[in-house]
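Sorry to interrupt, but I need a hand with the structure work. Please put the record directly below this note.
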Amino acid sequence: MPTRADTHDLYKLKRWQKDLEATPEDAPPVFAIFLVSGEDRAAHDVFRAFRASFEERNLGFAHLVIFGQHGVSETAKRLRTRFGLEEGVRPSLVLFSGQGNGPQVVALPAGAEGGPHPDAGSGWRDALTSAVGVVDGAGPNGRAVRDAVSEICRLAIDSPAA
């Protein structure tokens, strides 16, 4: 029987795919995917920092999504596999920002202590600065990046449970 986390994240993945498909072709090629666990409060705080910045720039759900916040789901595990990340490793940000063909993977702080600032280092801040630079600079056409991310969604939806 699926857990709450499984049900929630699969619904979110399907909604995200629909939003990606509806994203205009001239939208910024910036897509941030957070893969966390329910205990990773510090990583959740990093997500909130991204959300605040993205909302200021009118970027919505298609550009920023988090999986695993209610527990590690089968969907989160499948996405980790699709992105070539090891299972059970610290929380991660997978960022597509129109820079090359693949995403940038940033390790995020694990656990509940400290929030995003004390132990996260500058990796997430650098990733956010880079993403914002692409958005604010009206970077390259996002269609190819959007299509690649949408395909990852489709493959994760179509994959059998791990």
Notes: The CA atoms of residues 94 and 105 lie 5 Å apart. The mean pLDDT is 83. The radius of gyration is 15 Å. Helices lie at 4-22, 41-56, 74-82, 116-119, 123-136, 143-158.
